[in-house]
């Protein structure tokens, strides 16, 4: 994908830069102000499209020592379910998906996790009704 982007003359790259400001005209994107991460100098760049990538490392630091992670830091699930090794903990989206890491995939995976969580909670409610004195912490 990177090679295709480099070969496309309609795409420009701004390495060692961060967006300092997004500029608009009439409610439409008109450009950005870029800040050089080394010098701090800013420059304007006209743009009608902007794509922000958050990287390829899953942001799972919060879950270290709470659920099992694989060697790359992704949360392990009991596929095809979204269930983790944590009781009542389900994971979905980019923190699970090694391959696609896309918003639409994450949305679908989030729906799966919601359904798994709903089934889990329903099962807890059924247990509670059947044996009112039963402990729900299992």
Automatic annotation (TrEMBL):
Q: Tell me what reaction this enzyme catalyses.
A: [thioredoxin]-dithiol + NADP(+) = [thioredoxin]-disulfide + NADPH + H(+)
Mind telling me which Gene3D superfamilies this protein's record contains?
A: FAD/NAD(P)-binding domain
Q: Name one Pfam family in it.
A: Pyr_redox_2
Q: Which UniProt keywords apply?
A: Flavoprotein, Oxidoreductase
The residues covered by the FAD/NAD(P)-binding domain are: 4-110
The Gene Ontology terms for molecular function here are: thioredoxin-disulfide reductase (NADPH) activity
Question: InterPro entries, alphabetically?
Answer: FAD/NAD-bd_sf (IPR036188), FAD/NAD-binding_dom (IPR023753), Ferredoxin-NADP_redctase_2 (IPR050097)
Alphabetical list of PANTHER family matching this protein: THIOREDOXIN REDUCTASE 1-RELATED-RELATED (PTHR48105)
Q: What is this protein called?
A: FAD/NAD(P)-binding domain-containing protein
